[in-house]
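RecQ-mediated genome instability protein 1, pasting as requested.
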Amino acid sequence: MSLADILPNDITKISYVGLTAARGTREETVFNALKNEPWLDSIDATEILDRKMVIVDRDMLFQVMMIENVSKSKLSQVDDMKTNLDPKNQRVDRLKTSNIPSKSYKVINEVNIDDGQDANTDMTNNFAAQKTVYKLAIQSRSGKIFFAINLKPINWASSALGAKIIIRKGAIFNRGMFLLNENDVMFLGGMIRSWNEDKDFKVMDYLENKAKEENDQMIALKESRKRKR
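Structure tokens follow.
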């Protein structure tokens, strides 16, 4: 089995891990991460959540099941995705429901490249990217699911589902979550084709369900506070 065989496949279905490669190569790094014991494999979910600020002691291979932008509301992301799929789905009340003071708005169809607006847009987009936080649902070779969150910007946030990453020795794990700095993760790419069929709809369904869960929890919390009064 080669690296080319690993990237497009489900790592939970790889049974043979007696792999070797030339020392110091990228392939050897991947093979070693795959062969290393999966993270907290013999520990149940309750105990995993009790593990605080643990330093990862080995490289490990994971596959990405979902990438969620937690810097932006879930419903807003769903709205954006629906608009991209079909502009006629765009909410007409976006400006009305925003916090922008009421005034007339003009649709801009052209941009004068001499006035520096493009440069300002690029600066704004770069600044936003620096502030964006992503939450990844990732799966180990044994099938256990964990989460990871970036402490520094990542440039592969739009990767395909099933993409492979290596979480490196020295990363921090806290209460079910890997806290990733730039040097704590190696992005390998790849994808699992079946996971990416109708990907946008799967992501929208995930975000809508998560938004409903959070709303239900908020309602339950408010009801609980009312009863205590």
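Note for the archive: The mean pLDDT is 83.
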